[in-house]
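Dear H.,

Thanks for agreeing to be a second pair of eyes. The structure we're designing against is below in token form, covering all 720 positions.
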């Protein structure tokens, strides 16, 4: 084959861009379907108890209503399936949380289904409920494992003795609230049964893995389930597996014998789709006066549902971030009468690193040491938790490169003294971290007689640019221009592949694509480079390759910098600028990578200043269950964002050299902003988000402290 210009590393325009801007791209709800009907859920108005009666008569009397489903007449799911309890939709009269589906109306139009659902009468037997997370809850338990498979309690050395002996100590508690996923495309499904074959057009992060789950739930062969997810409008973890609306659509379609559609409203998204758990985190850092950590203790209290024993890996980053001979990390979960929390972008690591990186900043202040220098001084040579060598670790270079680019050397370390008119100005820094995961995958590469190539793999593109990146990987492996390649993704039937989550997609899928394409080139050599009339096809599987990876500690790292201003009179907070510097392996496409980092940093800003799910303890629901009350960052909130990455080549990662980047950019962003707020005002806010009322309270505290400080009344230095 003729040598062509390398695709990997080039800022290639998205291959699906034209389809998206012209409307040709089809999302789950848009696939043309004949004789389609619609299902609308009836949701519980109590937080805990049981359904005693469902009266369908008023709904059935309405034009267009086909049936009303509840726990007495819905098709049965496979009770032996290994699936989350909240996926067993309409299988029991028990109510585990407010908003749970307790019935559903299927009708010939969306309007009729919605009207019918409003007409269904449901009676309940109420039971006392508890939906409030408390640090002192007597039911708190340490789970055997958390979501990354590590134990809920991990210790090394003697953490208590080391704490007692530490010359300098920081002991602080930080809280993060419930956060809701808010993808542009809500959860949506079209379910179609053809005898015992189920097809789901689903907004789905992992078609193959979702097919496995649905086959288990409905007790049918895996080969009888097709998941179609050609285009997805975001997911952030919430679409990693099918959720209850998808199961409801499949149940309804089976019940009425015709295709069924469902698309959640934004309010239903807040009630039926899992969220990030609130956390109450206590971090204790002990160090010598030289700044070297001797002990790290990190405890996270978080919630799970009474139904499902979910526990996020909130303290996992802490175990390997900094060198300390003694450490203890603990996760405690409280079973509450709530919807099960689940994965949300960089699950666990995002709230966990907010607490750790805020505490490191507080330790730097206690030591009178620059916070970047403190982090560098505690850089480990090997993974402090496992003792394994790092496959790569670019944190120190990220910190130093970022400091130079951000202008950190001009920073006065004293907090609360920089003014521009009525604005207090401050800067902050925090580290980013995310594990580097790679899962087995399979891919097929095919050469056609007309000189074109086809590659297919059961991957999913959430809008991250996966289609484009995999096209680049395949083109380079085949030695052809991307224009001669057709990539097919987004279907379970395209083969085994992990979901688009955990920042593992491009690395996992890319390995399989690269292997299949290189094998195809070798196969074509046996034909003298001439493609026979029937074409040539090669399948590759990376299960054994992944199993042979060197036993190393694999991660990605970064450094986040932020400058904020706080209005001395109103407490208004504005972020002036942010910089993210990242070390995450080989960057396949600079265009899409930059987009990923910018989006993640924006989510971190939104977490720091705006996002909070306000729990209503009386009804067991969230008081702010739409965008009028649940605020996320808008264009006016986003400052000048600057992103760069290091030229990091980790030859042990995979043949492509790619690592995950999607979630790395959110981790540390909130801590950098919170640390900058402290530097601006001199007051520390340890509870996210730092909303206006918390900012004003911090300013009142600062003024009170100033009045009682020796020399009060003397003019402060001003800048600008």
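And this is the sequence the design step returned. I haven't edited it by hand at all.
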């Amino acid at each position: 084959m003729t040598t062509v210009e390398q695709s990997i590393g080039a800022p290639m325009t998205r291959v699906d861009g034209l389809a998206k801007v012209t409307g040709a791209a089809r999302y789950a709800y848009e696939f043309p379907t004949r004789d389609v009907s619609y299902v609308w859920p009836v949701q519980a108005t109590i937080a805990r108890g049981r359904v005693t009666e469902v009266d369908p008569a008023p709904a059935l009397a309405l034009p267009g209503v086909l049936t009303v489903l509840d726990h007495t007449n819905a098709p049965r799911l496979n009770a032996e399936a290994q699936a989350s309890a909240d996926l067993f939709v309409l299988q029991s009269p028990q109510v585990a949380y407010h908003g749970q589906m307790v019935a559903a109306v299927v009708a010939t139009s969306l309007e009729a289904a919605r009207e019918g659902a409003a007409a269904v009468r449901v009676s309940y037997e109420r039971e006392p409920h508890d939906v409030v997370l408390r640090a002192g809850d007597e039911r708190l338990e340490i789970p055997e494992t958390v979501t990354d498979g590590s134990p809920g309690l991990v210790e090394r050395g003697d953490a208590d003795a080391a704490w007692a002996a530490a010359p300098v100590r920081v002991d602080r508690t930080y809280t993060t609230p419930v956060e809701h996923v808010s993808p542009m495309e809500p959860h949506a499904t079209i379910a179609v049964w053809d005898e015992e074959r189920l097809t789901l057009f689903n907004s789905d992060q992992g078609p193959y893995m979702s097919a496995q789950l649905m086959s288990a739930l409905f007790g049918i062969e895996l080969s009888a389930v097709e998941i179609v997810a050609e285009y997805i409008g975001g997911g952030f973890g919430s679409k990693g597996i099918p959720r209850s609306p998808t199961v409801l659509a499949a149940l309804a379609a089976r019940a009425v014998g015709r295709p069924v559609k469902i698309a959640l409203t934004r309010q239903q998204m807040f009630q039926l789709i899992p969220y990030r758990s609130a956390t109450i985190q206590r971090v204790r850092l002990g160090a010598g006066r030289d700044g070297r950590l001797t002990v790290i203790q990190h405890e996270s209290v978080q919630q799970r549902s009474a139904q499902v024993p979910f526990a996020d890996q909130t303290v996992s980053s802490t175990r390997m971030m900094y060198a300390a001979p003694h450490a203890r990390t603990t996760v405690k979960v409280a079973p509450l009468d709530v919807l099960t929390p689940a994965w949300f972008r960089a699950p666990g690591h995002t709230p966990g690193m907010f607490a750790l990186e805020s505490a490191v900043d507080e330790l730097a202040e206690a030591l009178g040491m620059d916070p970047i220098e403190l982090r560098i001084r505690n850089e480990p040579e090997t993974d402090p938790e496992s003792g394994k060598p790092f496959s790569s670790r670019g944190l120190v270079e990220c910190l130093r490169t970022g400091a130079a680019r951000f202008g950190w050397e001009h920073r006065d370390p004293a907090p609360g003294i920089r003014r521009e008119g009525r604005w207090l100005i401050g800067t902050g820094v925090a580290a980013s971290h995310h594990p580097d995961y790679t899962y087995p995958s399979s891919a097929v590469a095919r050469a056609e007689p007309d000189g074109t190539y086809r590659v297919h793999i059961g991957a999913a593109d959430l809008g991250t640019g996966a289609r484009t990146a995999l096209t680049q990987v395949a083109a380079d492996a085949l030695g052809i221009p991307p224009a001669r390649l057709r990539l097919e993704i987004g279907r379970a039937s395209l083969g085994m592949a992990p979901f688009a989550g955990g920042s593992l997609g491009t690395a996992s899928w890319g390995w399989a694509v690269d292997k299949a394409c290189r094998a195809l080139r070798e196969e074509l050599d046996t034909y003298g480079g001439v493609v026979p009339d029937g074409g040539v096809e090669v399948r590759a599987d990376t299960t054994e390759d992944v199993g042979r990876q060197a036993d190393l500690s694999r991660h990605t790292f970064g450094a986040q910098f932020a400058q904020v201003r706080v209005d001395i009179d109103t407490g208004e907070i504005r972020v002036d600028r942010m910089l993210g510097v990242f070390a995450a392996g080989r960057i396949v496409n600079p265009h899409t990578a930059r987009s990923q980092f910018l989006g993640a940093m924006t989510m971190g800003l939104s977490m720091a200043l705006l996002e909070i799910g306000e729990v209503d303890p009386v009804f067991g629901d969230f008081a702010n269950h739409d965008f009028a009350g649940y605020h996320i960052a808008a264009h006016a909130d986003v400052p000048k964002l600057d992103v760069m990455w290091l030229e990091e080549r980790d030859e042990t990662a995979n043949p492509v050299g790619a690592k995950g980047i999607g979630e790395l950019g959110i981790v540390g962003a909130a801590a950098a902003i919170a640390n900058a707020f402290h530097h601006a005002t001199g007051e520390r806010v340890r509870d996210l988000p730092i909303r206006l009322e918390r900012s004003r309270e911090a300013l009142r505290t600062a003024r009170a402290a100033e009045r009682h400080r020796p020399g009060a009344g003397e003019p402060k230095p001003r800048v600008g």
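Two observations from my side: The chain has 17 helices and 28 strands. Residues 505-525 form the longest helix (21 residues).

Warmly,
E.
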